[in-house]
Design goal:
Strand order of the largest sheet: 1-2-3-4-5-16-6
Helix content: 25-40%
Oligomer: single chain
Number of helices: 12
Bound molecules: coenzyme A
Low-confidence stretches: none
Strand content: 25-35%
Shape: globular
Distance between the termini: 30 Å
Number of strands: 21
Length: 404
């Protein structure tokens, strides 16, 4: 079956395309929210699949930048993908991915990234799992730190307007340190991070905004809410930490000290925590956090040459990849990466793999060695896998603190 896939042209079409995924969340179309959402997802980037003039699928792309080792790169942030249950498994998603990648390539976005609802969907389009993140749930009585921490600053609960003014630079600071963060625009902060509609609280209380300052200068912030409950007059409630970001190690620990010490709850919980989060070394009993790990970002190199040249590498050693890329054949063939730049080559290849493998190792969160253990790479020059591990290495695991 063939679908007519094009950008939406007005708010009504935008809403219909969004409903392709919204219905799976049990939502009804909401004109006010649709209008707000169009501030961060332009009409042009919301593709709709039409059957006989009716919208039966949608696939969006946020036009943001993503932090990568050593900098930022323009990224097609794949989002709100859905196909009506009446039209599933007839190729609508495939047609929308085709149109989205072609559009992103035309716009000069070297990579695409997404959070997958199910692991089985996106590998076929060249996305590779590029990192891990997980949930923590720390019992309130197990919040001791391994070493004493001297409090340096002052923490205040601030109102949404102050949060909006003071939190963004700290997010951008984390993006300089960690790959995998998307850069939030002012509209994103205004329409998505700070607002707190009641129907998005999962039964919890309102968002609280906490700011840590050292000598009046913002050094860390948290967004959290209470989800309260009681049994036999005893609180079984939770503090849910939505986001907690510090400028440096001390500020981060000080912020978490505050969050972990909030009284009258049974546990402090958070999600999307990377495996090398400092908390695992700061806590005296990290096992008690009951960490549960899953996949986080998936990355797709849309323009292999531009994408590989957009990040930095700890070593300049040359590597030649022979790539397969069925869905984006313009990437197929041999690429030589040396001294931080990638170009086409006729040189003999060191490694042969699918483009999804490069997506996996791109942010430095997954090693080629690990993928080779799963038989996903052919090593044509002995030692090339170990060399690639050294070239793509990045000190800190990717971290994307929000699902987009
Ligand atoms: C996921 C979804 C968008 C797929 O749309 P679709 O139009 O049915 O997909 P297509 O017909 O284009 O399928 C393309 C291929 O992906 C496979 N596929 C699609 N969805 C899949 C899934 N959930 N699990 C496993 N395979 C899947 C198809 O079997 C097909 O394989 P093939 O190319 O080998 O034939 C649709 O099932 C959906 O809306 N699901 C609920 C919402 C959701 O999960 N959205 C994704 C948000 S990240």
């Amino acid at each position: 079956m063939s679908f007519d896939v094009r950008s939406v042209e007005n708010l009504d079409e935008f809403q219909q395309a969004l409903f392709s995924i919204g219905q799976y969340f049990g939502q009804d179309p909401n004109p006010e929210r649709t209008e707000q959402f169009s501030r961060i997802l332009p009409f042009e980037r919301m593709l709709a699949a039409r059957d006989d003039g009716q919208i039966v699928g949608g696939a969006g792309a946020f036009p943001f930048e993503m932090s990568v080792p050593g900098g930022r790169v323009r990224c097609c942030g794949t989002t709100v993908v859905g196909v009506y249950p009446t039209h599933r498994r007839r190729g609508a998603l495939r047609a929308m991915m085709r149109a989205q990648f072609d559009q992103a390539r035309e716009l000069g976005e070297p990579i695409a990234a997404l959070w997958a609802s199910e692991e089985t969907i996106y590998g076929r389009y060249g996305y590779g799992r590029a990192g891990y993140a997980g949930d923590i749930a720390i019992p309130r009585e197990r919040v001791a730190f391994a070493r004493p921490l001297e409090a340096r600053g002052r923490i205040r609960i601030v109102d949404p307007a102050e949060a909006l003014a003071k939190f963004p630079p700290l997010w951008d600071g984390l993006a300089q340190e960690r790959p995998g963060l998307f850069i939030r625009s002012p509209d994103w902060w205004e329409t998505r991070t700070i607002p707190d509609p009641v129907d998005r609280r999962s039964g919890g209380g309102p968002k609280r905004f906490a700011l840590l300052e050292h000598d009046g200068e913002p050094v860390a912030y948290a967004i959290y809410r209470h989800n309260m409950s009681w049994e036999n007059f005893v609180s079984t409630g939770k503090v849910r930490v939505i986001e907690a970001i510090g400028r440096d190690a001390h500020a981060t620990a000080e912020l978490w000290r505050f969050l972990l010490d909030i009284d009258w709850v049974a546990s402090i919980e958070s999600s999307l925590i990377p495996p090398d989060h400092p908390l695992f070394f700061v806590l005296a009993e990290p096992r008690r956090a009951r960490y549960r790990l899953g996949d986080s970002l998936w990355v797709r190199l849309l323009d292999v040459g531009a994408a590989l040249s957009a990040r930095t590498y700890p070593q300049g050693e040359a590597l030649v990849f022979d790539l397969r890329d069925e869905f984006c054949p313009w990437n197929e063939g041999r690429w030589r990466l040396a001294d931080g730049a990638a170009e086409r080559t006729e040189d003999a290849p060191d490694l042969r793999c699918d483009v999804s493998v490069l997506g996996s190792i791109y942010l430095g969160g997954v090693t080629l060695s690990a993928l080779a253990q799963a038989n996903l790479v052919d090593e044509l020059t002995p030692g090339a896998i170990a060399r690639a591990d050294g070239v793509f290495r990045h000190g800190l695991h990717p971290w994307c603190p929000e699902i987009f």
